């Protein structure tokens, strides 16, 4: 069974809305939207908020997708998402090819901060 | 382009290509640029691109689009290089970064930069756009032969809008493709 976040992302893709367009058009916080889609933030409990998301995703009221959207949100109720990536997951997200805007390597002392930011993103 | 955007419409929808065709997750990250002076990077697993949230939210999408295209360059061109750099802990990652030769890193960065330019500003489309503005300048009896470099900023600004990139990207693409002076 799909998670709420996976379904959310699939509906956004179906509507042909990139994350940037979706967030800027509707005034949604991009960090929260990204976390919601990745399952790092729970589905909102507020019916009004869910309806706002459903409308932004162009889900037609009363359609199968509409019911699935609300069912998946209800199924997640009470779930406490892991708010940080575990060590195994973080290794997959560590970059190899990256440099600063001035073309320099990232200072080794800053790498720990970068890891923490990835963990919380 | 044949693989990702055979329709060849402009501007090239790089964000949609990444998200919907490549299945890559774009993750806005606050402070990435301010603290680390980094616009964007791709995780080793190549399933996510982290991008500075300020760049993500900028009104003009030019920088955002170029950063994504640059990262797609690393994903497309440097998959094998990245796979060879093995680490399974954060400490091993730090060691691997330290050992990675600087000259190789520079080469790979330039390649990703060129890839981004080619993806967002394909030669044929650039040529077609350029011809339009050369016609306009000719109609205005502008002396292109002797003052081509005076007209270049004007042309770059005009063309950049069609491709949704900065003037500087067009400037470099014109040089790279030897399309200027016309």
Question: Descriptors for this entry?
Answer:
heterodimer, A: 121 residues, mainly alpha, 7 helices, elongated, B: 182 residues, Arc Repressor Mutant, subunit A, three-stranded mixed beta sheet
Mean pLDDT of chain A: 91
How many structural units, i.e. domains of chain B? 2
User: What series of H and E elements makes up the topology of chain B?
Assistant: HEHEEHHHHHHHH
Overall geometry of chain B: elongated
Number of helices of chain A: 7
Kindly, what is the distance between the CA atoms of the first and last residues of chain A, rounded to a whole number of angstroms?
25 Å
Give the oligomeric state: heterodimer
Please give the radius of gyration of chain A in angstroms.
17 Å
Number of strands of chain A: 0
- Our Rg estimate of chain B from Cα atoms comes to 19 Å
Low-confidence stretches of chain A: none
Quickly count the helices of chain B: 10
Largest sheet of chain B: 3 strands, mixed
Q: What portion of residues of chain A belong to β-strands? A: under 5%
Characterization of this structure:
- The complex is a heterodimer of chains A (121) and B (182).
- By secondary structure, chain A is mainly alpha-helical.
- In chain A, 57% of the residues lie in helices and 0% in strands.
- Chain A has seven helices and no strands.
- By secondary structure, chain B is mostly helical.
- Chain B has a three-stranded mixed beta sheet with strand order 1-3-2.
- In chain B, a hairpin with a 5-residue loop joins strand 2 and strand 3.
- In chain B, helix 4 (62-77) packs across helix 7 and helix 8 (123-139) crosses helix 9 (144-163).
- The radius of gyration of chain B is 19 Å and the shape is elongated.
- In chain B, 37% of the residues are buried.
- The chains are: A mainly alpha (121), B mainly alpha (182).
- Chains A and B meet through helix 2, helix 3, helix 6 and helix 7 of A and helix 1, strand 1, helix 2, helix 3 and helix 6 of B.
């Amino acid at each position: 069974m799909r998670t709420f976040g996976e379904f959310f992302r699939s509906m956004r893709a179906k509507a042909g809305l990139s994350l940037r367009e979706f967030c800027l058009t509707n005034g949604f916080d991009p960090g929260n939207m990204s976390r919601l889609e990745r399952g790092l933030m729970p589905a909102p409990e507020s019916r009004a908020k869910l309806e706002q998301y459903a409308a932004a995703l162009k889900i037609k009221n009363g359609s199968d997708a509409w019911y699935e959207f609300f069912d998946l949100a209800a199924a997640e109720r009470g779930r406490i998402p892991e708010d940080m990536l575990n060590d195994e997951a973080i290794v997959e997200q560590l970059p190899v090819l990256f440099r600063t805007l001035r073309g320099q390597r990232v200072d080794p002392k800053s790498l720990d901060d970068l890891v923490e930011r990835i963990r919380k993103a | 382009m044949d693989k990702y955007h055979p329709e060849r419409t402009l501007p090239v929808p790089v964000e949609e290509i990444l998200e919907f065709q490549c299945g890559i997750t774009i993750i806005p990250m606050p402070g990435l640029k301010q603290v680390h002076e980094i616009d964007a990077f791709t995780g080793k697993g190549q399933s996510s691109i982290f991008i500075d949230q300020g760049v993500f939210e900028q009104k003009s999408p030019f920088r955002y689009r170029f950063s994504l295209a640059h990262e797609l360059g690393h994903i497309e061109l440097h998959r094998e290089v990245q796979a060879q750099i093995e680490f399974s802990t954060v400490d091993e990652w730090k060691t691997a970064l330290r050992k990675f030769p600087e000259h190789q890193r520079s080469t790979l960065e330039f390649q990703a930069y060129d890839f981004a330019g080619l993806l967002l500003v394909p030669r044929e489309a650039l040529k077609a756009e350029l011809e339009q503005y050369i016609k306009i300048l000719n109609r205005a009896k502008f002396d292109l032969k002797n003052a081509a470099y005076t007209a270049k900023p004007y042309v770059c600004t005009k063309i950049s809008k069609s491709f949704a990139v900065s003037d500087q990207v067009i400037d470099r693409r014109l040089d790279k493709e030897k399309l200027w002076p016309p």
